[in-house]
UniProtKB/TrEMBL annotation:
GO BP annotation list: intracellular phosphate ion homeostasis; negative regulation of phosphate metabolic process; phosphate ion transport
Protein name: Phosphate-specific transport system accessory protein PhoU
Subunit structure: Homodimer.
Domain PhoU residue range list: 17-103, 120-203
Length: 236
């Protein structure tokens, strides 16, 4: 029984790595099809999302089976729960990549409004965040998880700067506004990939320590709101 339990856990981790690799592949392929204006590659990548959906169902079934058969406790329970939550983020990354493919298909027929210099850099950061977040979860590496979370600020900075650039391009050249809007949606999708990688890193911290980072952030936010209300009331 114990040997089968260990084997099932190992198979779960293996499947999780496979799904993470699929999510990383689809976001990279989607962005490359956009930057290379490769319509056919974008179409093929769009269809690849179906495989990620199937992988999510497979892993979900594995998690439920382990929970039902073995009733894992402590760290093992947190690992299974963390993987169960993380596959939702991985699946959503596939959805975001599919959205980028739709834009790639549309923009393949029109000339670019600006050189794609910053997009590869932003893609590299979120792709590395995704890889490292998964590794931090599987290894229980809290420091690596915290590093992933910190990198999300860099992604946000990229998004804000590129957003401002595209808005300025639209202002100066109204005829390019439609393309600029689509590119804004692309960089927003990349920013969201960073958010999903951050979520997985937070699950890694939960797996290792039992701390729910999201709840702490919410508590800190509420505390700041209360302090702000007190200061405003004093001003009155």
């Amino acid at each position: 029984m114990i040997e089968k339990y260990v084997l099932d856990l190992d198979e779960l981790k293996k499947s999780f790595i496979e799904m993470a690799d699929m999510s990383k592949k689809i976001i990279n392929d989607a962005m490359e099809s956009l930057m290379e204006r490769d319509k056919e590659r974008a179409k093929a990548t769009y269809q690849y999302d179906r495989l990620i959906d199937l992988k999510e169902l497979e892993i979900e079934e594995r998690c439920i089976r382990i929970l039902a058969l073995y009733s894992p406790e402590a760290a093992d329970l947190r690992l299974v729960v963390s993987i169960l939550k993380s596959i939702v983020d991985l699946e959503r990354i596939g959805d975001l990549a599919r959205d980028i493919c739709e834009t790639a298909i549309r923009l393949s027929e029109v000339p670019p409004i600006k050189p794609y210099v910053d997009l590869p850099r932003m893609l590299k950061i979120v792709s590395d965040m995704l890889k490292d977040s998964v590794m931090s979860l599987l290894r229980g590496d809290v420091e690596l998880a915290k590093d992933v979370i910190d990198r999300d600020d860099i992604v946000d900075s990229f998004y804000e700067r590129l957003f401002d650039e595209l808005v300025e391009i639209s202002r100066k050249n109204p005829e390019s506004a439609a393309v600029a809007v689509r590119l804004i949606l692309v960089i927003k999708s990349l920013e969201r990939v960073g958010d999903h990688a951050t979520n997985i890193a937070e699950y890694a911290i939960y797996y290792k320590t039992g701390d729910v980072v999201k709840h702490k952030k919410a508590q800190e936010y509420l505390k700041k709101l209360k302090e702000k209300e007190k200061n405003e009331n004093r001003g009155d």
